[in-house]
Amino acid sequence: MTAHALPAPAAALYEAIAGLPIISPHGHCDPAWFADDMPFPDPASLLILPDHYLFRMLYSQGVALADLGLGVPPDQRDPRAIFRVFADHWHLFLGTPTRGWLEHTLQRTLGIETELSPDTADAVFDQIDATLKRPEWRPRAAFVTMNIARLATTDAALDPLSAHQGAAQDWPGRILPTFRPDDILNPARPGHADRLRTLSQMTGADCAAYDGFLDAIRARRAAFRALGATATDHDVPDLMTLWLPRPEIETLHARAWAGDLSAQDAAHYYGHMLTEMAQMSAEDGLVMQIHAGSRRSTNHALLDALGPDMGADIPVAMDWTRGLEALLNRVGNDPRFRLLVFTLDESAYARELAPMAGHWPCLRLGPPWWFHDSVNGIRRYFDRVVETAGYFNLAGFNDDTRAFLSIPARHDMWRRGVALHLADQVDRGLLGAADAARLAPWLAHDAAVQAYRLADAA
């Protein structure tokens, strides 16, 4: 959908924001791309294998994941055959945002003029492959070509951050790490006790003791901040925050170190640690993100065979009001603290999250996430949150993607959604034209800079 396809009032708003630099403050791209700056691999490895939006749809229609290269050693994959399988099933994506992203990526980002179909699979593969070999599509140059100003990755607490150090050398592009500590905070995750020991070795802190554990976390947060991090990120399967008496959390930590927590105790431990992370964010200024509402790896056979992130993560409802109550009452009134929340339960927008953002000074609403990162999802989001939260309690947009080349497409979709929403508000007499013109760049660019404190990033 291009600007001239929008109704005239929306088109004018869109044209004013379409060329703004892209702020991508949360995502899952690989920082090693920018450290090494090697040409991207073949089209299948770049566009299909990392994108669960693509392969989950194909799997739902009976395509074997092995035919898409999943679970196949890299040296045994046939990228052209994988791309042919994808092209053979291109029609399955009609009506989905994935279709729009890919059409934008192929046609507008990469300049591929041949329309994708089963008959043109080889030709399109060759055109993409030739484009990716051009100097302007090496990772660092592509960052500039795609008009990206900031791009944040998501990095485990134990990541040595060597790729970020490499990406920062001899290049002005800003690739920011994001502190993702779930593996050391959540005892329900496999290998938790072993990771606590690794954390001790990495930081020199005595993580067997609770105070030493907190010191080690602070040290890792400082290492992330030194490389430009402005945020943390927390994947919360079941939202519950607590503040436990000190003897109780010390006892739970000793049992976590020994790998001897029941499921209930592990949940209580993680709930307390989320509140500890909020307190640390108030202290060091890192913006805290909570992504909640996804039941992970619901297809157990795929989990056993291929591991996580195989497209079987499904939305579930979350109780945000009760779930965040302890955290917010501990830290939510602290002017230094900022919390961004993301949900897959759209019913929570109007029922809980917009009213909460309209009250708590720390709270900002993240944009439609994952399954709802779509034209209609954006429309529903604005309709459900603006009346209660307003515009200035929103966190703008982030693409949350592993598919680097889809970043312009996803931000363009958001900007078109912003233009359509604001034009509709003007048409209904709820906004003046001047207010809509002011809000458009805020929602497209400035809100994310403010929400993630990127103006202060090194």
Describe the structure in your own words:
- This protein is of the alpha/beta class and 458 residues long.
- The protein has two domains: 3-38 and 149-456, Alpha-Beta Barrel (TIM Barrel); 39-137, Orthogonal Bundle (uronate isomerase, domain 2, chain A), CATH 1.10.2020.
- Helices cover 50% and strands 8% of the residues.
- The protein has helices at 8-17, 32-36, 43-48, 52-60, 79-88, 97-109, 121-132, 139-145, 162-167, 182-185, 192-203, 210-226, 246-257, 263-284, 300-306, 320-323, 325-331, 347-357, 375-389, 407-427, 433-451; strands spanning 22-24, 148-152, 155-156, 175-176, 179-180, 231-236, 287-292, 294-295, 314-315, 339-343, 363-365.
- It has a four-stranded parallel β-sheet, with helices on one face. The protein has a three-stranded parallel β-sheet with strand order 1-2-4.
- Helix 11 (192-203) packs across helix 12.
Q: Which helices and strands, and how do they pair?
A:
Elements: H1 8-17, E1 22-24, H2 32-36, H3 43-48, H4 52-60, H5 79-88, H6 97-109, H7 121-132, H8 139-145, E2 148-152, E3 155-156, H9 162-167, E4 175-176, E5 179-180, H10 182-185, H11 192-203, H12 210-226, E6 231-236, H13 246-257, H14 263-284, E7 287-292, E8 294-295, H15 300-306, E9 314-315, H16 320-323, H17 325-331, E10 339-343, H18 347-357, E11 363-365, H19 375-389, H20 407-427, H21 433-451
Parallel strand pairs: 1-2, 2-4, 3-5, 6-7, 7-10, 10-11
Antiparallel strand pairs: 8-9
